[in-house]
Amino acid sequence: MFTGGAWHPPLGRAVQRVINPATEEVIAEVALGDTRDLDRAVAAARAAFPDWSETSRQTRLDLLRSVLDIYTRRIGDFAAAITAELGAPRSLSEDAQAPAGVGHLRAVIEALEAFPFETRLPNGDLMLRDPVGVCGLITPWNWPINQIALKVAPALAAGCTMVLKPSELTPLSGLLYAEVLEEAGVPPGVFNLVNGTGPEIGAAMAAHPDIDMISFTGSTRAGKAVLRGGAETVKRVTLELGGKSANIIFADADLETAVASGVKTCFQNTGQSCDAPTRMLVERSAYDRVVALAAKAGSEATVGDPEQPGPHIGPLVSDLQFTRVQELISVGIAEGARLVTGGPGKPETCQRGYFVRPTIFADVTPDMRIAREEIFGPVLVILPFDTEAEAIALANDTPYGLASYLSTGDPDRAMRVARAMRAGTCNVNGAYFGAGSPFGGFKQSGLGREGGALGIEDFTEVKVLAI
């Protein structure tokens, strides 16, 4: 465990085996902490807070720039770790997964340079933004460095101290990040890392009386548990949770481009992205054409060894995730959806590892489980609509509201429909929001925003001075 600026043997005795999901082989063993390890880390963070919270903007900028330099130098190590522990294909790890840590760091540095820690209000009062305190950061396995960077960097920028608990399924990325922060010279106690399980360490963090804020990314079910755990101490809670994102395709869109992009984005990272466009809503006059294009794109999606470069899809992260995705594919067939491509079982070429067949269903109805539940695998469902109003209603007919997608040749309709969708982001005609833009969701997709200036703001408290 990295606590108080040094590496310590764990007080707990549990060990987590890290499994390569492509080979099902053990590639590492990581010590898991217990509540004593957490208490030690929180105490270190609490002791470091008074000094770090008073540091200057320049001091924090210098540290973040040092982190960026060291991370960039070691980016190959992160890509290799993500491929090994998550099963992300090498090209995805090198081109997207690991570089996310660079993009978010740069965006936070840029936001910190101009962040308004002091603002004179029109009435003459002075509004201050103070660091919220000791923060518990709980990150997921699907984009490990993306989420670590989105939490650690803004917390440092705001003047907070922290305890990070990365996912026990992908702990190697978190350990590497701790090495980067150590080399960058983060003061003792400002950043601490405790590996552990969600039910033990995650729950204890949510309820810990000396943690002022929890920033959690994961499932909606787990996010609700974090909210309940933090209620007793009235903690600040930021949540980035699940999604079932709609991708509306109108008949006047460039159908070939829109469908190919929609299928590719849904299948990226083996469908293990919270903002994946997993519901393709298609104007009825273009429906048959879109289904045929989706079938072509789906049948051309390949599955293969993540250690090899290329655009292929890797395995799911674990046997548990494999079982869940297989169950929901079978549910879709039983519910009467038309199987366009893929289906149950493993690809013929990948019988070892947690590989699945990229799957597309057509003729899906809004009440089907596969249209409502977050599958978190390479499974796309296609539904028809007749009018713009119906498309918007279908897109919003979900308890989630993380992301949305839209393709149309009509600029006025693009703006009209994008504004009407109840989601934290809307990506229009193949565009995708950049690092530094706020990311988060409506409804049960979360609370708060991550990224850029709003990401820093979430780690602050507002104080007004009336003098």
Explain how this protein is built.
The chain is of the alpha/beta class and 467 residues long. It folds into 2 domains: 2-241 and 443-465, Aldehyde Dehydrogenase, Chain A, domain 1 (3-Layer(aba) Sandwich), CATH 3.40.605.10; 246-428, Aldehyde Dehydrogenase, Chain A, domain 2 (3-Layer(aba) Sandwich). It is built from 16 helices and 20 strands. It has helices at residues 35-53, 57-73, 75-86, 90-97, 100-113, 144-158, 171-184, 198-207, 220-231, 255-267, 287-300, 319-334, 369-372, 388-396, 411-420, 452-457, and strands at residues 2-3, 6-7, 15-20, 25-31, 118-120, 126-131, 134-138, 161-165, 191-193, 213-217, 236-240, 246-249, 279-283, 338-341, 359-362, 379-385, 403-407, 425-428, 446-447, 460-465. The strands form 5 sheets. A 7-stranded mixed beta sheet has the order 14-15-16-13-12-17-18, with helices on both faces. Strands 9-8-7-10-11-19 form a 6-stranded mixed beta sheet, sandwiched between helices. A 3-stranded antiparallel beta sheet has the order 5-6-20, with no helix packed on it. Helix 3 crosses helix 4 (90-97) and helix 10 crosses helix 11 (287-300). The termini are far apart. Belongs to the aldehyde dehydrogenase family. Keywords: Oxidoreductase. Residues 16-464 form the Aldehyde dehydrogenase domain. GO terms for molecular function: oxidoreductase activity, acting on the aldehyde or oxo group of donors, NAD or NADP as acceptor. This is Aldehyde dehydrogenase.
Q: How many individual domains?
A: 2
| Level-2 CATH architecture of the largest domain | 3-Layer(aba) Sandwich
Can you tell me the CATH topology of the largest domain?
Answer: Aldehyde Dehydrogenase, Chain A, domain 1
Strand order of the largest sheet: 14-15-16-13-12-17-18
Largest sheet: 7 strands, mixed
Globally, the shape reads globular
Question: What's the number of extended β-strand segments?
Answer: 20
Count up the helices: 16
Fraction of residues in H or I helices: 40-55%
Which regions have little confidence, pLDDT < 50, spanning 5+ residues? none
GO molecular function: oxidoreductase activity, acting on the aldehyde or oxo group of donors, NAD or NADP as acceptor
Active site: 240
Domain Aldehyde dehydrogenase: 16-464
Protein name: Aldehyde dehydrogenase
